[in-house]
TrEMBL record:
UniProt-listed SMART domains: AAA
SUPFAM superfamilies hit by this protein: P-loop containing nucleoside triphosphate hydrolases
Domain of life (superkingdom): Archaea
Start and end residues of each AAA+ ATPase domain: 46-187
GO molecular function: ATP binding; ATP hydrolysis activity
Signal sequence, start to end: none
InterPro entries referenced in this protein's UniProt entry, alphabetically: AAA+_ATPase, ATPase_AAA-3, CbbQ/NirQ/NorQ/GpvN, ChlI/MoxR_AAA_lid, P-loop_NTPase
Keywords: ATP-binding, Nucleotide-binding
Protein name, per record: ATPase associated with various cellular activities, AAA_3
Keyword Ribonucleoprotein belongs to the record: no
Pfam families: AAA_3, AAA_lid_2
Length: 326
């Protein structure tokens, strides 16, 4: 299969077909949350990590596990606690008397999709170890470097309400998350459907509908998605405007601009297009920017949110109407 896929070349229709199969498969278990599922796929194709924020019980863990199974990827879950050590995540060297030497005992970070539950409960030291894995896609155990599997994505969860016994995530680590996705309560019809499925279905099972090779083939298409100069300028103006907003203390960095570009290209592939349109950029703007904007104290006092700031920015900047880029 790998040789066939490597010869496939640039095929947005194939990317869209695979993406639809994944989303339909995940929807057999997950009720609603279509945007959340699509955002996670965008992040996987763009090679980034995700921060899921939501109260307990809104299926954050189930979403991550179901997507991993649909993609036929290895999956592990790490529960963050204040006493969690870096070695609990990355592993350690253990002595093997059979070879009279030390050998690595790899930790749960060695998986394609790693769910890091309640990341803000981990100590700064442990968060630092996770940061190396997220940034470099490798870990160091007793001075020896080990590459992580491809694809590799961290899906970290955070409870926005409970703050006791937590550690704030430094801006440097927040910036390493490609997207911050808000997982909200289901609406009335969705919650009824959840209850129906729990009542009538004895066992939830899901089978893979794609493979790691297909995911890597789609990732390889990303550089070939075309973006016009007008849309590059549009991205830069959006990020620059976040820095100039009167309620913002710190706006998006150049990494935010890069993230907007990559995620909008990934969304174009999911839609089966070889080029980006303004709607791609607007669709990913909030999850890309909301965790990269720091508000002034007076804005927080007035209960102004970063999502409102992003809405203001998108409404103020004229949307370009470019043709299909050559």
């Amino acid at each position: 299969m790998q040789n066939t896929l490597s010869n496939k070349g640039f095929d947005p229709v194939f990317a869209s077909s695979v993406s639809k199969k994944i989303m339909e498969n995940v929807s057999k278990i997950i009720v609603g949350k279509k945007d959340v599922i699509q955002y996670i796929l965008i992040s996987i194709y763009a090679g980034g990590h995700i921060l899921l924020e939501g109260v307990p019980g809104v299926a954050k863990t189930l979403i991550a596990k179901t997507i991993a199974r649909s993609l036929s990827l290895s999956y592990s879950r790490i529960q963050a606690t204040p006493d969690l050590l870096p070695s609990d995540i990355i592993g350690t060297l253990v002595f093997d008397p059979r070879i009279n030497d030390f050998k690595p005992r790899k930790g749960p970070i060695f998986a394609n999709i790693v769910l890091f539950d309640e990341i803000n409960r981990a100590s700064p030291r442990t968060q630092s170890a996770l940061l190396e894995a997220m940034q470099e896609k490798q870990v160091t155990i007793e001075g020896i470097t080990f590459k992580l599997p491809e694809p590799f994505i961290v899906i970290a969860t955070m409870n926005p309400i409970e703050m006791e016994g937590t550690f704030p995530l430094p801006e440097a680590q927040l910036d390493r998350f490609l997207l911050k996705i808000i997982v909200s309560y289901p609406d009335t019809d969705e919650e009824k459907e959840v209850l129906r499925r729990i009542h009538y279905i004895e066992k939830f099972e899901i089978s893979p509908v794609t493979s790691a090779e297909e995911i890597l083939a789609i990732k390889a298409m990303l550089p070939k998605v075309r973006v016009s100069e007008e849309l590059i300028d549009y991205i830069v103006r959006i990020v620059k405007k976040t820095r100039e907003h009167p309620h913002v203390r710190l706006g998006g960095s150049p990494r935010a601009s890069i993230s907007l570009l990559l995620t909008s290209k990934a969304n174009a592939l999911i839609d089966g297009r070889s080029y980006v349109i303004p709607d791609d950029i607007k669709f990913v703007a909030k999850p890309v920017l909301r965790h990269r904007i720091i508000l002034k104290p007076e804005a927080e006092f007035e209960a102004i949110t970063t999502d409102q700031i992003i809405e203001d920015v998108l409404n103020e900047i004229p949307v370009p109407t470019p043709g299909v880029p050559s």
